[in-house]
Specification:
Elements (H helix, E strand, L loop, with lengths): L1 H33 L7 H8 L5 E6 L3 E6 L3 H9 L2 E6 L2 E6 L12 E5 L8 E6 L8
Antiparallel strand pairs: 1-2, 2-6, 3-4, 4-5, 5-6
Length: 136
Amino acid sequence: MKSKKKKRILITVMILLSVYFIFVEIFIYMNLKSYGYGLKELPKTTLVYFHLSNGFTVRTEENYTVFIGRHSYIYDDVLHEKGYASEQMGMDSFYRKEGKEYSGDNVYEFCISDTNDWCHWFRVYHMSGKRKIEDF
């Protein structure tokens, strides 16, 4: 008797988790479509949402890259661990290597700008230069 009851509870929990996961995938996909992305980005975005990834690059242009990531509060910590100091100016975060001497007007190595649109599942960022978020 106890074995049947445990099995029934386990099956119910598995079904509920599967339904939850399917709904999460649907909502993430709908938001990805609104940003111009699709099924190709869905698995990696799901990893970002479940905090299994810090982000991934979706496009590299001549002067910047675009990546999908978690909300901005984690990138200061991630980059600080890599030896970067940051300064926030509005929605832009500027980073420079700690202890490195900079000359001229440009005292920062790169900038990360997040989009103004709020999305519960992920955030789209622009990073100056040809750096990729995976490099950090």
